[in-house]
Amino acid sequence: MEIAFTILLFIALVATAIAIVFIKRLFAVVMLSGVFSLLAALLFIVMDAVDVAFTEAAVGGGISSVLMLGTIALTARTQKQPERYSLVPLAIVLLTGAVLIYGTLDMPNFGSPDAPAQRHIGPEYIARTPTDIDVPNIVTAVLASYRGYDTLGEVVVVFTAGLGVILLLSGLGRRRGTPYPRGVSANRDQDNAQ
Amino acid sequence: MEGGFETGFLLGHMNYWLFVILMMTGFYIVVARGNLLKKIVGLNIFQAAVFMLYISVGKISGATAPIITGNPDEVYSNPLPHVLILTAIVVGIATTALGLALIVRINESYGTIEEDEIQQHDLEQYDKDCARAEEAR
């Protein structure tokens, strides 16, 4: 039952991804990427990762879709038709995929309780959380308490990215007052000055 | 890998192969499509496939989500991949936002978000610069 559901979700995920490859209208692409995130969230729930699922649904399906919609509103609505189809990217992708699949042959079976990942430090956190932290959700306990410094580092990354976005986009409205015509670069002033 | 390809092996490894298929679809979008926004979407698909791979490593058959139920015999899935991927999702949205801001900035300078048009524009600019240098000499 669980396997059937997983495979069904998976087929939907692949269909969405392949539709994104072929669709030219960027609005549809952004919407499909939101659908992809929600399907991925369902798959995370099937695999017991409820915290990851709701983060993915909120961040992947929500915030990222809004950011992308903002981007297409500021840039272009459609993707240009590619002039020629090359087989080189397909060959690269198939080769990489084959190497990755070869790499998985040594992996333990899915859901196996004696896999190395399950026998290392994970059980320790599960056993100690009720006495050490007394928070029922073990993921929260590890994220905010045992590995609190990592989460602090994550906040620094988000802050840096936000700073980068502000620096890149500051003065956008001001510069928009004198738009460059299509195909004329911002180097134009420099060209004229010389 | 003695007698590797039995049903148990196939079922136990199918998840990895499915994620590789998904990952490669995202990779193909990044490599083969010239539209910068589509490249970012492809990167997100690639990223989501990596997340699924990690979460599937933490799954234990018959286990439940790692939230303490009070039942001492309860088996929980490994919470550590979940913590890792939570952090990765948030960092992923930060990089996506930065990439999208770069796209807006590129569009402002070049008037396009297609890779080949940007490249062609750069080449024309280079030719112009060369011609000007020739004149000055």
Structural key phrases:
heterodimer, A: 194 residues, mainly alpha, 10 helices, 0% strand, disordered C terminus, B: 137 residues, Helix Hairpins, 4 helices, elongated
What would your notes on this structure say?
The complex is a heterodimer of chains A (194) and B (137). Chain A has 194 residues and is mostly helical. Among the domains of chain A are: 80 residues; 55 residues, no CATH class. In chain A, 73% of the residues lie in helices and 0% in strands. Chain A is built from 10 helices and no strands. Chain A is globular and about 60 Å long. The C terminus of chain A is likely disordered. Chain B is mostly helical and 137 residues long. Chain B has one domain: Helix Hairpins, CATH 1.10.287.3510. In chain B, 75% of the residues lie in helices and 0% in strands. Classes of the chains: A mainly alpha (194), B mainly alpha (137). At the A-B interface, helix 1, helix 2, helix 3, helix 4 and helix 6 of A face helix 1, helix 2, helix 3 and helix 4 of B.
What's the helix and strand layout?
The complex is a heterodimer of chains A (194) and B (137).
Chain A: H1 2-22, H2 26-46, H3 50-74, H4 88-104, H5 116-119, H6 122-132, H7 138-146, H8 148-169, H9 172-176, H10 188-193
Chain B: H1 7-32, H2 36-58, H3 79-110, H4 115-136
Helix pairs in contact in B: 1-2, 2-3
Kindly summarize this structure in a few lines.
The complex is a heterodimer of chains A (about 190) and B (about 140). Chain A is mainly alpha-helical and about 190 residues long.
